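Page 47, continued from p. 46.
Same chain as before, 89 aa.
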Amino acid sequence: MPKSKHRRKGRQRPRAHQTVEPPRNPTPSAPWIAPTGVGLLIAGVAVILLGYLVLNDVTGSWPIFGPNWGLVSGFVLLIAGFLVLVRWR
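Result:
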């Protein structure tokens, strides 16, 4: 029986799923990202604590958020801090 003409003698090519991509060197993040993200996280926790402990009796409630204005704004700051820290390398 004759051999197929598609065979290569002595050399095998790697399959597409067997090849490994070369490692990429990620670019370092800007130096302001880490302090800004940590600052936003600390500010968010501080606003939540101040809203519940101190400022709720003094300022009352806002018309939009009601008595939970400290909780809403604190969570907004926390989410912003996490979104900034996602970019940190």
